[in-house]
Amino acid sequence: MAADPELEAIRQRRMQELMAQRGGGNNQQNPEQQQAQEDAKREADERRQMMLSQILSTQARERLSRIALVKPEKARGVEDVVLRAAQMGQIAEKVSEEKLISLLEQINSQTTKQTKVTIQRRRSVLDDDD
């Protein structure tokens, strides 16, 4: 009978381990961690937008926001390029709309996908070329 309490304790520990692996045991910390991650992400986005407002002119920011409505991943990439250039000291003055357009054209020329369409026509058994 001494083995039964030990066996029960082992079962309880194993159940707790399984629940922790499945995420059932982390429910108490999960909302707090999620909130902290969201706050950190929001703060990083605010800093990013503040830096962009200092680097880009008003018209350039408007154009970039319009691009973000249609293609958010492309706008994010352009923002990354502009921020990286500013951090390296390559940008001495505010980026105008014309500079942003030329930057967009450069990025578009580098990332355009070449599609090739090949049409293969099959002859039907009923077609007669004679």
Summarize the structure.
The protein is mostly helical and 130 residues long.
CATH homology superfamily of the domain at 41-106: PDCD5, DNA-binding domain
Shape label: flat
Can you write the helix and strand succession as a string? HHHHH
How much of the sequence is in beta strands?
under 5%
Q: List low-confidence stretches.
A: none
Number of strands: 0
**Which fold does the CATH topology of the domain at 41-106 refer to?**
Helicase, Ruva Protein, domain 3
Helix/strand/pairing category: mainly alpha
The N- and C-terminal alpha carbons lie at a distance of 95 Å
Overall pLDDT level:
82
Largest sheet descriptor: none
| Tally of separate helices | 5
The first-level CATH class of the domain at 41-106 is given as Mainly Alpha
Q: Based on the structure given, which CATH architecture of the domain at 41-106 is correct?
A: Orthogonal Bundle
**Proportion of residues in helical segments:** 55-70%
Radius of gyration over all CA atoms, rounded? 29 Å
What does the model show?
The chain has a domain at 41-106: Helicase, Ruva Protein, domain 3 (Orthogonal Bundle). It is 69% helix and 0% strand. The termini are far apart. The chain has 130 residues and is mainly α. The longest helix is centred in the first third of the chain and has 26 residues, at 30-55.
